[in-house]
Automatic annotation (TrEMBL):
It comes from Pseudohalocynthiibacter aestuariivivens. Its EC number is 2.4.-.-. GO terms for molecular function: glycosyltransferase activity. This is Glycosyltransferase family 2 protein. Keywords: Glycosyltransferase, Transferase.
Length: 294
């Protein structure tokens, strides 16, 4: 089952649901945070969706984590739970030929209860508003490019997790303040227990052993990637709204310049940008790992 919080995502949801249904997700649990664009009505009409609605503060709910934790405790016990935003599309080794259930079966057989992924910001060639995206279309026909090499990682001893940053947002917005660059390490897939809780979005989780999703004792673990579709043509309008609401960062004032720049439709593409091909390319670039799953 899949868990997600949404607000005004009517444009992304048709592709999102179609993609994850094809991967084998059988049920979706959404928390809608006061949408006004038809998202609520659209989700209510889906046969495989359970929907909760709230107009409370996204920030005060630890950016939606508390809402989803309650649902995961109530409905996720002993199930593999996929937790993703509407702008995150999961790819993993063999995802074009093997459903998610095959991955989770293998994870069960190898006694692993969590699966890690890097978030990769996808972007168009030219200004962000160059192409108009239509609901239901493949977003990667437009968001066809990504940064392949400018990533850096630290180990956080307190949570025993990696802290991964970099990519196009670091390159374009945060080179002078790298500590504020977005966090890109995520743990979107977990065999849930009522004793578990995400700490900061899906970047880290308790108990800490669930954060051991990367190299350990010399054995490379299988990992995936979350292709991030934030930079569709709607990003300018959404950035102006996020800047007004101040619900997406703990210290929102520090990100005013970031939102202002996004609202001006920048061009992220340069000669070092890579055209996205498939999961094999990401393994070749060492952005994700096939590990010992063959």
């Amino acid at each position: 089952m899949a868990f997600s919080t949404v607000r005004d995502e009517i444009v992304r949801l048709p592709y999102f649901l179609e993609y994850y249904r094809k991967l084998g997700v059988q049920h979706f649990l959404f928390v809608d945070n006061n949408s006004s664009d038809g998202t609520t009505e659209y989700l209510k009409a889906q046969p495989d969706v359970s929907l909760w609605s709230t107009d409370h503060s996204y920030k005060l709910a630890r950016f939606g984590v508390d809402w989803l934790t309650w649902l995961q405790i109530k409905y996720g016990q002993d199930h593999w739970c996929l937790t993703v935003d509407a702008d995150e599309i999961l790819v993993y080794p063999h995802c074009d030929t093997r459903p998610l259930s095959q991955m989770t079966k293998w994870l069960d057989e190898t006694n692993r209860r969590s699966f890690g992924a890097i978030m990769i910001d996808m972007y168009p060639k030219g200004k962000l508003n160059t192409n108009t995206y239509k609901a239901g279309d493949d977003p990667f026909a437009i968001l066809a490019w990504f940064d392949a090499f400018n990533y850096f990682v630290q180990r956080k001893s307190d949570l025993q997790c990696l802290w991964l940053q970099g990519g196009v947002r670091f390159r374009h917005f945060f080179k002078d303040s790298p500590d504020r660059a977005p966090t890109l390490n995520k743990i979107p897939l977990v065999k849930w227990s009522r004793r578990y809780a995400y700490v900061n979005s899906t970047h880290s989780i308790l108990p800490r052993r669930l954060n051991h999703v990367y190299d350990e004792d010399g054995v490379e673990k299988v990992t995936g990637a979350l292709l991030h579709t934030k930079f569709l043509h709607i990003v300018a309008e959404k950035s102006r709204e996020e800047r007004r609401r101040r619900e997406h960062f703990a210290n929102s004032d520090l990100y005013d310049a970031y939102y202002q720049s996004l609202s001006e439709n920048p061009n992220f593409w340069d000669e070092d940008s890579y055209a996205y091909r498939d999961w094999r390319q990401l393994v070749e670039l060492q952005l994700m790992s096939q590990g010992d799953w063959r």
